Amino acid sequence: MYDMARIGANGYFDAQSADERYEMKVKTAQLRTKKYQSQAFAKAGGCLPYPAPANTPEFVQQYITYYKTKRGYHARSVNSNKGWPLQAQTGWANTKILVHPEDFKNAALIVHGEKDHSRYMGEDTFKKLTGDNKEFYLVPNATHTDLYDGGDHEYISFDKIEAFLNQYL
């Protein structure tokens, strides 16, 4: 699970303040106006080139290893190439899709890798869910991108997912 609204509003690891969020919105609005007038839309840049520089955060290295290699590269992938439009970030910053997860009545299986940089997002959301048809499943040793395609160790827990679906569908 990835809470894009949370990242858009608070940054990774909730490191962005309200003032920083406001400044990001102001800069993005100014950029949007400028780019609209010129008909040139700025992109966030996608992943850094492979291999990643040594001082790159581990989770960013994992993205690069996925999106910039045969494993996950695609010519039309925003993450493999020039990235998302910069203007898209304000939409995430203003979206609050997980404000009331306790209202979610359907069965929910939240799956994260043990070494997943976004694990805190799933754990925080899971704590707010109600009902006995919710489960948090932690895949030992897996990272975020390992759960895209199984990684080198077939980390996707198809048996767990199938059992959950059979129980609740």
Describe it.
By secondary structure, the protein is mainly α. The chain has three domains: 50 residues, no CATH class; 37 residues, no CATH class; 70 residues, no CATH class. It contains seven helices and two strands. The protein has a two-stranded parallel ribbon with strand order 1-2. The protein is globular and about 55 Å long. The two termini are 20 Å apart. The mean pLDDT is 90.
Topology:
Elements: H1 4-10, H2 18-38, H3 58-67, H4 88-93, E1 108-113, H5 119-128, E2 134-139, H6 146-149, H7 158-168
Parallel strand pairs: 1-2
Strand content: 5-15%
Order of helices and strands: HHHHEHEHH
Strand order of the largest sheet: 1-2
Low-confidence stretches: none
What is the tally of beta strands? Answer: 2
What is the overall number of helices? Answer: 7
Distance separating the two termini: 20 Å
Derived from helix and strand composition plus strand pairing, the structural class reads mainly alpha
Fraction of residues in H or I helices: 40-55%
> Which geometry do the CA atoms define?
globular
Mean pLDDT: 90
Q: What integer value in Å does the Rg equal?
A: 18 Å
Domain module count: 3
Largest sheet: 2 strands, parallel
